[in-house]
Specification:
Oligomer: heterotrimer
Radius of gyration of chain C: 21 Å
Membrane topology (chain C): Multi-pass membrane protein
Keywords (chain C): Cell inner membrane, Cell membrane, Membrane, Transmembrane, Transmembrane helix
Number of helices of chain A: 5
Largest sheet of chain C: none
Organism (chain C): Geomicrobium halophilum
Largest sheet of chain A: none
GO molecular function (chain C): transmembrane transporter activity
Pfam families (chain C): DctM
Bound molecules: sodium ion
Strand content of chain C: under 5%
Order of helices and strands of chain A: HHHHH
Number of helices of chain C: 23
Distance between the termini of chain C: 48 Å
Number of strands of chain A: 0
Chains: A mainly alpha (171), B alpha/beta (329), C mainly alpha (428)
Strand content of chain A: under 5%
Shape of chain A: elongated
Chain lengths: 171, 329, 428
């Protein structure tokens, strides 16, 4: 059940971030053509682009965590004995998870603040709290991924950086 | 940490620190205003109050600063309607062309005493911003690659505006092609001919060196660059009676002083602008009237867009302006 | 407070936390400790604001274009062309690698994409000619720095965003320094081949043959012309240029050469999104940290300490270069540019340094730092792609650090070298 739910989320994540990239390219190219050929600037292009970048970054945050694809410095850890590495990785994943859940809380309260303040984007008048809600969701999902990675490190052999990859076998 | 750590002063009990943010550079009208406030308040409270001024960029752009004020991270801010139109849509009335007078004395009288603007201030308060004063930084003027004297001259002209739907409507009424662009991108866009013109007071034109990439500077006085000094309400209510009195009096004085501050900055700026290779055009009364007429429908659009509160405010404001114009004729 | 922030960042980095964690934690903890009454939501506001600049959209777009081209045949066509021109000189294969990195850099804005696209095939070709991995991989990692110096460049875009400098001018200004560095690399390639007596030159191709390769490479080579020309003529903004480059890459690889199937595009977009997300979360966190620093009025203290009062231009440039170089050794260079530039910019402007020249020097330090131990991201990219040990890559890099150090010194002493670009561009 949880597996199935997780698989579904994984697909949704992949689908949303890759479509966001493609859509961004289409909107920006469309705007160039519209301006050069018809002399009409799409005032919404900028806002759509900004919305997409929020999706890519924060939904991507969870996806990156899942795949263990973060930028991190592993050189010192690699010099240490396996046991120590395993303990360190467990600490790193659980602390990162706690940090992300805390951010979820802060970001969630900020979403409520934004909801009360009623700010909207200038052209499309999209409420800003929706974009902040996407951030909150991204923090939460990433927190879950790190928690799962922590559990994997406890339950299984090996050093797990994400829920889908094992240290050293990148890609 | 050392005692000169800016952080420690904010929490100390014996000294009250006021954080004051504004939207402009250290070399600007708003900074003159903020620094004058700092000097006067610190002096009048004998060091009991310290004012820390953060010019733009340090804590974020204008809408972000406004939000920080609403959230209480910042105590005082100078917030311009063009940048807070998404928070208090009604305040976009300041962007309307030829709503105010082309006589700054008249405008000053209205900004100081208007009851309509008191109503507008209440709308700010609903959004957790307490308006301490409305004041002006001078007239909006145009710079352009083409000579502009009549609304027809705008046809097809790509003009940069602040991101406000009402401004877009206004320039559409002149058949221009309004392009909302971030302020920082205006110079390079003018240079690359992605746009043909822009509107701003002279001090901003000079500061951004738009004269280098434009052929005409047009004294159109089509709107006032109005702005508001706002406070976080909890901060304001939390001040001791004594300090609040000092703040109130200082703000009142600055409302008067701002007229000279902006005049000085704008006159100096125009001189500098005219030193470069640019042609100066001054619109006469008849030409201004043509723009007033062409932009009139936008006032109706304003009423439609922002609803009944805004409609009442603007009608009352129009009366007040007419009254003041009579008085100064 | 500054020591608390530095302490948190370096401790967490060294332990091996993902890089976003130290940046986020340092901002959060300092807020909780020094400004307990201030709403933490402001940090979220700043994370959000950090990635909202329109010009930043150019970053994922340039990465997307590079990803499409590395999935296709662009890099191979460029390699064949370069090798047909200089492959017969002594050191020709190493030289081909240097030039190919610069050329691929002219279609891509990132060093990582360049390592993958130009480095992978060149390592194999160099190995066939007797180069050891300890020679070829360090060359690839360091020559990839050129990708950041040759337009388009993600580092220059970020510098342009935070300083308001024209990205178009930065792009053009990067070309001269890039050519100087390339020349120094080529000389070293020649000397190295002679020292180890490597017989690595290929046969001299006939002009007809070379012409055939040129024709094949012509479309990708049209790329930089399109981007620079487009931005400079005002046809499009840097962001749009990046999007147009995606369209161009799609046209070349999918429509014309059919080396990438349209069904592969979502997969490529996904990999672009992952790289973008990993970088942008750092930019967001960096913006949050920046805000905390400004709120505590720390930038003034830092600049006062480092630069003193009324410093000379040379001293300012030198200190800025050292600062960026050192910090880029530890933290992703793009984030360093994002956070540090606003702090040092006022000092540099006061000292009369040209903003474009400053941008190029900062970009060069970022590029060098990205390949410098202990944390240079390019080293880790190379480890992931070539599966060679960390130390082997680092050791072989020494000669290149020397070259890049000399190049930096040259630009710092004579910043006017950078400004020669002004002669070649139309001014109004
Ligand atoms: Na490049
Ligand atoms: Na590099």
């Amino acid at each position: 059940m949880i597996r199935a739910l997780d698989n579904m989320f994984e697909k949704v994540e992949r689908w949303s971030i890759s479509s966001a990239i493609i859509l961004m390219a289409l909107v920006l190219i469309g705007n160039v053509i519209s301006r050069l050929v018809f002399n009409v600037t799409w005032t919404f292009a900028e806002e759509v682009g900004q919305m997409l970048i929020i999706i890519i970054t924060f939904i991507g945050l969870s996806h990156v965590a899942r795949r263990g694809r973060h930028i991190r410095m592993s050189a010192i850890m690699e010099l240490l004995p396996y046991k120590v590495q395993k303990v360190m990785m467990a600490c790193i994943t659980i602390l990162t998870s706690v940090l992300l859940f805390f951010l979820t809380y802060v970001s969630g309260s900020y979403t409520v603040t934004m909801f009360d303040l009623d700010r909207v984007t200038p052209a499309l008048r999209i409420p800003l709290y929706i974009m902040i809600a996407v951030m909150t969701f991204g923090f939460f999902m990433a927190g879950i991924q790190y928690l799962r990675t922590f559990i994997r490190n406890l339950k299984y052999e090996g050093i797990h950086e994400g829920t889908e990859s094992i240290e050293g076998e990148n890609e | 940490d050392s005692s000169n750590d800016g952080a420690t002063t904010k929490n100390s009990d014996d000294v009250k620190t006021i954080t004051f943010v504004h939207e402009e550079s250290p070399d600007s009208v708003q900074n003159d205003y903020a620094e004058a406030f700092k000097e006067m308040v610190e002096d009048r409270t004998n060091g009991e109050v310290v004012v820390e001024v953060y010019p733009v960029g340090q804590l974020g752009d204008a809408p972000e600063q406004a939000e920080q004020l609403q959230m209480g991270g910042v105590d005082l801010a100078i917030a311009s309607p063009g940048n807070t139109g998404t928070i208090v849509p009604e305040n976009q009335l300041f962007l309307l062309h030829h709503l105010f007078s082309d006589d700054m004395e008249v405008n000053q009288e209205v900004l100081k005493n208007s009851e309509a603007l008191d109503e507008l201030a209440l709308l700010y308060e609903e959004n957790n911003m307490k308006v301490l004063s409305f004041w002006s930084q001078g007239f909006q003027q145009w710079t352009s690659d083409e000579e502009i004297r009549r609304p027809e001259d705008f046809e097809g002209l790509r003009i940069r505006t602040m991101p406000s739907p009402l401004l877009t409507d206004t320039y559409n009424a002149y058949d221009a092609n309004p392009s909302p662009l971030p302020y920082e991108e205006v110079y390079s866009s003018l240079q690359l001919n992605m746009i043909d013109g822009q509107e701003n007071p002279y001090f901003a034109v000079e500061e951004m060196n738009f004269q280098e990439v434009q052929n005409y500077v047009i004294e159109s006085e089509h709107a006032i660059y109005a702005t508001a000094t706002v406070a976080n309400p909890e901060f304001y209510e939390g001040l001791s009676d004594e300090v609040r009195t000092v703040v109130d009096e200082t703000i009142k004085e600055l409302q008067g002083l701002s007229v000279e501050m902006q005049e000085e900055r704008n006159e100096e700026a125009l001189e500098t602008i005219l030193e470069s290779d640019i042609e100066f055009v001054e619109l006469d009364d008849e030409e201004k009237a043509a723009f007033e007429q062409a932009s009139e429908p936008v006032i109706e659009e304003y009423k439609e867009q922002v609803g009944s509160d805004g409609a009442e405010i603007i009608e009352q404001l129009q009366e007040e302006i007419a009254e003041a114009e009579e008085k100064y004729k | 407070m500054i020591w608390l922030i530095l302490g948190i960042i370096f401790t967490l980095l060294l332990i091996g936390f993902p890089m976003k964690v130290p940046l986020i934690a340092a901002g959060l903890i300092s807020m909780l400790m020094y400004f307990p009454d201030t709403d933490l939501g402001i940090l979220i506001q700043q994370y959000f604001a950090g990635i909202q600049a329109f010009v930043l959209l150019a970053v994922p777009m340039f990465i997307f274009a590079a990803d499409i081209m590395s999935s296709g045949n662009t890099s191979r066509r460029l390699l064949d062309f370069v090798s047909s021109m200089i492959g017969h000189v002594r050191g020709g294969y190493a030289m081909t690698t240097s030039v190919a990195c610069a050329l691929f850099g002219s279609v891509s804005g990132s060093t990582q994409a360049t390592i993958a696209a130009a480095g992978k095939p060149m390592r194999e070709r160099m190995a066939e000619k007797g180069y050891k991995d300890s020679q070829s991989i360090p060359l690839i990692v360091n020559a990839s720095d050129l990708a950041l110096m040759v337009p388009p460049s993600i580092a220059m875009i970020i510098y342009g965003v935070v300083t308001g400098t024209s990205v178009g001018e930065l792009f053009v200004a990067g070309i001269t320094p890039a050519l100087i560095i390339l020349a120094m690399f080529l000389i070293y390639n020649y000397l190295e081949a002679r020292k180890y007596n490597l017989v690595d030159q290929g046969r001299r191709e006939s002009w007809r043959e070379a012409g055939r390769y040129l024709r094949k490479a012509a479309l990708p080579l049209g790329f930089p012309v399109l981007i620079i020309g487009g931005i400079y003529s005002g046809l499009f903004s840097p962001t749009e240029a990046a999007a147009v480059s995606v369209g161009y890459a799609f046209l070349i690889e999918v429509v014309i050469f059919k080396s990438v199937k349209i069904s592969e595009i979502p997969k490529i977009a996904e990999s672009t999104a992952i790289v973008t997300a990993a970088v942008f979360i750092l930019v967001a966190a960096g913006q949050g940290l920046s805000w905390v620093l400004s709120y505590a009025q720390i930038p003034e203290q830092i600049t006062d300490t480092i630069f003193g009062s009324d410093p000379s231009q040379l001293y300012v440039l030198f200190m800025i270069a050292v600062l960026f170089f050192v910090v880029c050794m530890f933290i992703d260079p793009l984030v360093v540019i994002f956070v540090l530039t606003p702090i040092i910019e006022p000092v540099a402007m006061d000292a009369g340094i040209d903003p474009v020249a400053l941008g190029i020097i900062v970009t060069l330090q970022a590029a060098i730092g990205s390949a410098t131990p202990p944390f240079g991201v390019d080293i880790f990219t190379a480890i992931a792609i070539f599966r060679r040990p960390y130390l082997e890559i680092v050791k072989g890099s020494l000669p290149y650090f020397l070259i890049l150090g000399i190049a930096s010194a040259l630009l710092i002493l004579f910043p006017n070298i950078i400004l020669v670009y002004e002669f070649f561009v139309p001014t109004e």
